[in-house]
Amino acid sequence: MTNGWVDIKNADVILAMGGNPAENHPVGFKWFMEAKRNGSAKLCVVDPRFTRTAAVADVYAPIRAGSDIAFLLGLIRYAIENNRYHDDYVKIHTNAPYVIGEKFDFNDGLFSGFDEGKGEYDKALWGYEAGAKGGVYKVDPTLEDPRCVFQLLRKHVSRYTPEVVEQVCGTPKDKFVKVAEVVTSTGNAARVGTITYALGWTQHSTGVQMIRAAAMLQLLLGNVGRPGGGVNAFRGHSNIQGATDTAGTFEILPGYLKTPTGQLANLKEYYENAVPTTLNKQAWASMNYWVNYPKFMVSLLKAQYGNAATKDNDFGYQWLPKVDGNYSWMYIFDDMYRGKVTRVGGEEPGPEGLITFGMNPVGLGPNSKKMVAALSKQKWMVVVENVETETAIFWKAPKEYEGPEPSQIPTEVFLLPAADFAEKDGTFTNSARWLQWKWKALDPPGQAKADQEILARIFLAVRDLYQKEGGALPEQLTNVSWSYTNPADPDLGEVLKEMSGKALADVHDPNDKTKVVKTAGQQLDGFGQLMDDGTTLCGNWLHSGVYTEAGNNAQRRNNADPTGLGMFHDWAFSWPANRRIMYNRASADANGKPWDPKRPGIQWNGQKWVGDVPDMKPDAPPGTYGAFIMLPEGVGRLFSPTLNDGPFPEHYEAVEAPIANPLHPNVTSNPAFKKFTSDKDAYGTKEEFPIVCTTYRLTEHFHYWTQHQHDGRLNELQPGFFIEIPEGLAKEKGIENGSQVKVTSKRGQIQGMAMVTKRLYPLKVEGKEMWQIGFPIHWGFAGDPGHTGPLANMLTPSAGDPNTWTPEYKAFLVKLEKA
Predict the structure, then answer these.
(1) CA–CA dist 730, 727 (Å, integer)
(2) Are 372 and 400 in contact (CB under 8 A)?
(3) Taking Cα atoms as reference points, which of 721, 687, 733 lies closest to residue 791?
(4) In the sheet that 13-17 helps form, which strands lie side by side, from edge to edge?
């Protein structure tokens, strides 16, 4: 989230796509209603189904699942061609004036530099054009140069007329135009709008580019950095944001630092690969805050290895694990199933064991049969859970999952009972980036233990083995700093202190070396005090400041709001730096005056920036630095040459495409998408599977957990699995409401009760009728016997986005028939 839950109340317009917040985030949805009641905000909902969110919308437009980019590029075209974009903002705060080099091009669905054999682009061809001076790039402040980003974008989106949007998305032209009119009404200083999304965008083979398209639209409208604006991602669980911040995926370390690869032999080489070069050295220089990367990295290594990390040994960089391939979800299970891994330098034997901690791979992973088959080939697995999940009893999977006979499975499974959320303290980091402390309500039952105790006991036991027996690079374990008061059950307050950061020696003011700002042993105030010489430690630079000498700021509960905009700076702690709105320098014009004086993010008072915690050097006058301090240009990117599938978004069909791409039939799906080739990986065609299918969640079920409520009270709210079918399709198939139906994809078949509904509209795509169906994800074969059901992911494909490798759960092909 660039902004936050409460800030939604400040919006004039809310565009909800790729999510159903009234259903999936009902408490946060309060702020949508506040905006409507108190600010007369208009809510636009674009969704394949008429959802609970759509039920309170001012404008609803149906859309074909997976075609969101076409809709969003249509909105961008509408804004440009009707002069409904914020011209001053675009010129000041985006890379619209930058001129792109002659090697960049786009033809027939492909950007320049595509290698068909590798399925990858050469992104070096997408660079800016150099100017007359070294290190300075050519810009055109008038936005008239045909090679400037603005004109290239205008050309790129020119194809996405309302008629083409209707042809591709199935959205009636009049509905699209109505949404466009409302959304682009915010392309000026007086009005502001926000865009919200969730897994309905991320879980596509073009998921990153969907979100990019939304960010580009908001930059054009001048809505990024402003109260009531931004691009706001709604996380699926209470602490998903915190998990992501703290190395939730293999390619990042805490604070989104890059996981080093094996080729980078030392910190110097690592920095050369990780730290971006400042690009904008012109009128408004780029602050390029990543130049502080060494401070973040060395402080992290000191938190990891303590006194063992010294300047002489590169602060223990050699001990830090390196990656030599792709360790994302689908790749891990493909390696497990094939029994071998493809890495730099060739193939190696596959993994022999798995620790699954608070996750349910059999339920969560795409292509459930492959998940079961992969686990069946391991020597051991540790499952840390509250309940006995599908993963914990994968060998008991019903016959339709096609697993081996239990007697043929070598996997030894250890189920460790874990404390539930109410049975432990710690922090939740919500979608708004707020770290909020929660207090333990009761002790866990029986032998269940809190996560930190389970992790600590495993770590101490493994470290003990390395100390006794040695092994390959034992320093990786033996040098880890573990100085908690209770090593076997660390206090999470102590852990939070370590994450926030402290001084290991006196820290001096960089502008006055005689002045000590922190003495050795003191907690730091924030990441601005981190050092690259080993005199500070910090487990996560982004969370720095959450636990200072003043105490645990995550425990703060002061609801004073002097701004009147719902910022609540003394309530908990918002990363980074307790800032409530990211990129807030863009809330003001070139002179530091708020675009909208009634909703100032920050403003220049002649001496410093005031309002929210400034996303800017506090005393840097207007015109010193660009607003987007983390980017080497210092401005927001309408053209982004760093993504793996193009610097501009483009409409591509899902991996299982229901039609040939109307814009370029020779390149139907994302040319850089990832899919797999094992005998468990099969992909359907529109001829065999003509219906588009999607998945979603329900308010009444908490993921795969509610089915384990043995007293049945929660289950009674939504007692069984169902398949949502539009009335016209049901009539065509002779299916009655409440009857049993079968849904089949290339990977498997599930059965459930038909819920015949008006909420799925008939759509005309390329002039022909196209049907969509959907079902919720919450059931499985584990749990209370009266409330089990099929796994939704029996049908989903092992295919995903080339940037994040997220599986394509939200658009795949099926056929439907009576059971």
Answers:
(1) 5
(2) no
(3) 721
(4) 59-62, 42-47, 13-17, 193-197, 231-233
- What does the pLDDT read at residue 244? 93
CA dihedral 666, 111, 673, 655 (to 10 degrees): -30
- DSSP 8-class letter at 442: S
Q: 619-662, pLDDT tens digit by residue?
A: 999 999 999 999 999 999 999 999 999 999 999 999 999 999 99
Distance from first CA to last CA of the chain, Å, rounded? 43
What pLDDT score was predicted for residue 521? 98
- φ, ψ dihedrals at 607, nearest 5°: -125, -30
Specify the range with the lowest mean pLDDT, choosing from 88-102, 285-299, 694-708.
694-708
Name, in order, each residue with C-beta under 8 angstroms of 410's C-beta and a sequence gap of 6 or more: 377, 378, 379
User: Pairing relation of β-strands 573-574 and 551-552?
Assistant: unpaired
Omega prior to 647 cis, within 30 of 0: no
Sign of CA dihedral 73, 75, 81, 87: negative
* Backbone dihedral angles phi then psi of residue 708, each to the nearest 5 degrees: -95, 5
d(C-alpha 44, C-alpha 17), whole Å: 9
Question: Which whole-number Å values give the CA distances from 170 to 44, 78, 176, in the listed order?
Answer: 17, 18, 10
Omega into 576 within 30° of 0, i.e. cis?
yes
How many C-beta neighbours within 10 Å does residue 85 have?
Answer: 23
DSSP for 166-211 reads HHHH---HHHHHHHHHHHGGGSSSS--EEEEE-HHHHSSTTHHHHH
Model confidence at 281, pLDDT cuts 50, 70, 90, reads low
Distance from C-alpha of 792 to C-alpha of 770, rounded to nearest angstrom = 22
Structure tokens given for 585? 């320098």
Q: Smallest Cα–Cα separation from 751: which of 718, 784, 788, 786?
A: 788
Amino acid at 391: T
Count of C-beta atoms within a 10 Å radius of residue 40: 9
Helix (H, G, I), strand (E, B), or coil: what is residue 503? Answer: strand
The predicted model gives 465-488 an average pLDDT of 96
Closest CA to 290 of 269, 272, 263, 310: 272
Phi, psi at 710, each rounded to 5° = -70, -20
Question: How far apart are the C-alpha atoms of 182 and 194, rounded to whole Å?
Answer: 12
Which tens digit of pLDDT belongs to each residue from 384-429?
999 999 999 999 999 999 999 999 999 999 999 999 999 999 999 9
Determine the Cα–Cα distance for residues 491 and 502; give it in Å rounded to an integer: 17
CA distances from 650 to 1, 218, 638, 669, 686 (A): 23, 17, 13, 10, 21
User: Mean of the per-residue pLDDT values for the chain?
Assistant: 95
Instruction: Indicate left, alpha or beta for 645 from its phi (over 0: left) and psi (-120 to 50: alpha).
Output: alpha
| Distance of alpha carbon 352 from alpha carbon 517, whole angstroms | 50
Note the pLDDT of residue 134.
57
pLDDT at 739 over 80: yes
Structure tokens at 411: 């996997």
How much is the pTM? 0.97
Give the single-character DSSP code of 94: B
User: If residue 449 lies in a helix (H) or strand (E), which one and from where to where?
Assistant: none
Q: Report the pLDDT averaged over residues 546-561.
A: 98
| Span 288-308, average pLDDT | 97
Strand 507-509 relative to strand 512-518: parallel, antiparallel, unpaired?
A: antiparallel
Quickly count helices (H) and strands (E) in the chain: 19, 37
How far apart (Å, rounded) are the C-alpha atoms in residues 608 and 39? Answer: 30
pLDDT band at 132 (very low <50, low <70, confident <90, very high): low
Range list of β-strands (E), 313-394: 340-343, 346-349, 353-357, 380-385
Element (H, E) at 212: helix 207-221
How many residues appear in the chain?
A: 819
- Contacts (Cβ under 8 Å, ≥6 apart) of 83: none
For residue 136 the two structure tokens come to 């300075």
